[in-house]
Amino acid sequence: MTAQAYSILQRKTIVSEPVLVTGCAGFIGFHTAAKLLDMNRRVVGIDNVNAYYSQHLKRDRLSELAQRPGFTFSEVDLSNSDSVAKLVATHRPLCVVHLAAQAGVRWSIENPKAFIDSNIVGFLSVLEACRHHAVEHLIYASSSSVYGANTKLPFSVGDTVDHPLSLYAATKKANELLAHSYSHLYRLPTTGLRFFTIYGPWGRPDMAIWKFTKAILTGEPVELYNHGHMRRDFTYIDDVVESIVKLTEKPATANPLWNSDRPDPGTSDAPWRIYNIGNRSPVELLHVVELLEENLGRKAIRHLVDIQPGDVRETYADIDTLANAVGFSPATPIEVGIKRFVDWYREYHSHRPDTIAL
Questions:
Q1: Is 306 helix (H, G, I), strand (E, B) or coil?
Q2: Average pLDDT, stretch 287-294?
Q3: 168 is catalytic
Q4: Mean pLDDT over residues 205-214, rounded?
């Protein structure tokens, strides 16, 4: 057999094995599942389609995925460990991409139990299913929120993250610790992704760019916390998905140089890794509003307010470790990304006028 023929045969074997994506009705999960399907990968999707934000939007995402060959969906709550284990045992994925979570910094202040149930209990169900059913790589969503009270910029995976400012951030830090214990005890390769303010088409209605767009179009005030001087490392969804897909084929490995006398917070002597997924280019919210005004052809009514409890003033990702691991480099400037979002937003609502309240 020639080397080329062997490569093709090997690739066919990889394609035949599904990737399990939790949170596939969510923003990042939807795009990740769609990209994998476009690459002729089979995808098993899990989501509980909860009502934290529009279930209509989530069902529309699922409808898009259902049109593509190779997609299987199960409406499952991850806190139901037996159901999760049964799914993994049935489909036997070698890679699990765990993107389901209860999101929202401010929502975590009002509804702490929802975050424990979803982000801690649900994550434990995923870890146990991976451990018992020969999953070879678990990728899971963490968050830039774990950097909390840190002020040294850019945020690096080599920094300690011991001072979260919200319960949401604390649950994400807990996920990283739980993953490490499973990597150490059971040699389960786990890769944590600290996402930095993801945006783009099919985004979340509770996030800034969607909220600002809706407010400008409906003539409502745009609330700008910290008087608009918050800075975020806005990262376009296509860049995020590119890094996730590349990492599905690069299971976490132990760092042979890891030193317990001087422990590196981003690696381990277990097969455990942490990466920042960001754009390494912070943008002030006032500039985001200006770009939206330009693309929407309307002026915003600015409502400048104080910073909110749990908020971080600025995020900025150091992505050198990710670039070294998989050659990732963000390719979408904020000007391009916002135009694409606005174009999608207008198109989506033009066909679904009943969703304008999203």
A1: coil
A2: 96
A3: yes
A4: 95
